[in-house]
Design brief:
This protein is 50% helix and 7% strand. By secondary structure, the protein is of the alpha+beta class. The radius of gyration is 25 Å and the shape is globular. The N and C termini lie far apart (61 Å). The relative contact order is 0.08.
């Protein structure tokens, strides 16, 4: 047998082993994935029923808007199609009427049921994607109309909440100067301190992770061609997104711990990565902190997310939603979760004038597009480019933007490193560990440089 035949055989064997590994992973994860599908359908049905039960209390304009945005019959048909498919996969699922659908779904699956799941998974996925799009429309409609805020409480209550929120904002503004002074004093004390650094806390009494030398912008919102949510990296990201979407904070915290300990990445500011064929869908931009604000999670959960480095200045993205460009605080206010207002209030540690920030942002976006737009491995259309506003939350403003986040070590792939240096940016475009170009961006120009001297970041 020639050397070429040996290489070909080895390649084929490797390919087959890889396919078998993926099949085994799908079969192994079947009970958990099956339970998520059933839970999602069950929860969406309840949300839809809630929406329809409150419809009679809406104004004519809101009713007209709702009829355009949401088709209840289409939604119910999708749910029934999904449940019918679920029964084909797990015939015993509908046999015990004393248990909830979610409880029945989480029961152990037989090997035969797991194999049927493998066979039917793509069909289930198409229905789940359709259900997800319908759920997003329902959710956006409820936010725009104001369920949980305009409908469930009277106007006097709204006025009291708004007045209370304004008092809190005024108190925050009044205390900013004092906070700044205390931080300056702490810096001076720190300069003479011997031994381990003291624990830092912000004005909400929450431990501050915002002294990190570098933060990561996970900007991918859609799989690139050839990628799919069945691949390990994207599957793990999906598990985090699902846990946050359903408000299952035990699973969410476990997924965040896994990302940090096993993948050596921090996913606390990640949003959902859509399938590659969902080209018409816009990303929601909901990070775990946005989801916590939406669900009205406990202060302890929100504080834990902030301690992990969750950005209070992260903004939502979905076009046509009332929450577009909303921070987690905006989401909490929209739903009246007053217990979260103070802990979600953003703290700007590196203030920068809006016009400066806007000009730097435009030049940065142009530079990234110019550097990677034609690179076949980049696929910038699948990414949201870094928002510089995030850097104002940090004392040391360095940001890492990987364009191949699925790599075990993202330094091996395409990436952008951004440093906020007073009122300018130092930007490093990287093609792996060796090839790179350095730029300095000011309001007036972008120029390539041979080396960067950073005065203050």
């Amino acid at each position: 047998m020639g050397s070429i035949s040996v290489v070909g055989l080895a390649f084929n064997l490797t390919h087959v082993v890889g396919q078998l590994k993926e099949i085994l992973e799908v079969i192994n994860d079947a009970p958990e994935d099956f339970a998520i599908v059933v839970f999602q359908a069950d929860r969406f049905a309840r949300e839809l029923d809630r929406l329809l039960s409150l419809e009679h209390r809406l104004s004519k304009d809101d009713k007209d808007y709702l009829q355009v945005q949401v088709n209840p019959r289409e939604c119910h048909l999708t749910i029934e199609d999904l449940k019918s498919l679920v029964k084909q996969i797990k015939p015993a699922w509908n046999s015990d009427s004393n248990k909830s659908e979610t409880e029945r779904a989480t029961e152990e699956m037989t090997l035969k049921e797991r194999v049927i799941w493998l066979w039917k998974k793509e069909e289930v996925k198409k229905l789940v994607d359709k259900l997800q799009r319908q759920a997003d429309r329902v959710r956006d409609s409820m936010e725009i109309i104001g369920f949980g805020y305009k409908v469930s409480i009277n106007e006097d209550t709204v006025k009291i909440r708004e007045d209370t929120a304004q008092i809190r904002r005024d108190a925050m503004e009044t205390s900013k100067a004092t906070i700044k002074m205390l931080e300056e004093v702490e810096k001076l004390v720190g300069a003479f301190r011997v031994g381990p650094a003291a624990v830092r806390a912000d004005n909400n009494g929450v431990f501050s992770p915002f002294l990190a030398d570098e933060i990561t912008w996970h900007g991918q919102f859609r799989c690139k061609p050839g990628q799919n949510n069945g691949l390990p990296y994207f599957r793990d990201r999906d598990k985090l997104s699902n846990a946050c979407y359903y408000g299952d904070w035990q699973k969410a915290m476990a997924a965040l711990a896994y990302s940090s300990e096993v993948r050596k990445q921090e996913w606390v500011n990640c949003w959902r990565i859509l399938a590659s064929d969902r080209t018409e869908d816009s990303p929601s931009g909901y990070t775990p902190l946005h989801q916590a604000a939406y669900h009205g999670a406990s202060r302890e959960i929100v504080k834990e997310l902030v301690e992990m480095g969750a950005w209070r200045l992260a903004r939502t993205l979905r076009i046509g939603s009332s929450s577009k460009y909303g921070t987690p605080l905006d989401v909490a206010r929209r739903h009246g979760w007053t217990h979260l207002y103070d802990v979600l209030s953003p703290i700007v540690r590196r203030p920068l004038r809006y016009d400066f920030l806007h000009d730097l942002q435009m030049r940065l976006n142009d530079l990234i597009r110019e550097g990677f737009e034609n690179n076949p491995a980049a696929h910038l259309e699948c990414f949201v480019l870094p928002e510089l506003e995030i850097l104002t939350e940090f004392e040391h403003s360095r940001l890492w933007f990987p364009l191949q986040p699925e790599l075990q070590d993202t330094r091996d792939g395409l990436a952008v490193q951004i440093i906020l240096d007073r009122e300018e940016l130092v930007v490093i475009l990287r093609w792996g560990r060796v090839e790179r170009k350095l730029y300095r961006i000011s309001r007036s120009e972008t120029r390539e440089i041979s080396q960067a001297v950073v005065l203050s970041y």
